[in-house]
Amino acid sequence: MNGILLIDKPSGITSFDVVKKIKKIFNVKVGHSGTLDKFACGLMIIGIGKATRLLSFFEKSYKVYKAKITFGFETDTLDITGNVVYQNNKIPDLDEILTTISQNFIGKIEQTVPIYSNVKVSGKRLYKYARSNQNVVLPKKTVYISNIDILNYTNGVLDIKITCSKGTYIRALARDIARSINTYATVTYLERLYIFPYSIRDAIVLSCINQKHIIPIEEVKDIAKLYTLEVSNGIAN
Question: Is residue 37 annotated as part of the catalytic site, yes or no?
Answer without folding.
Answer: yes
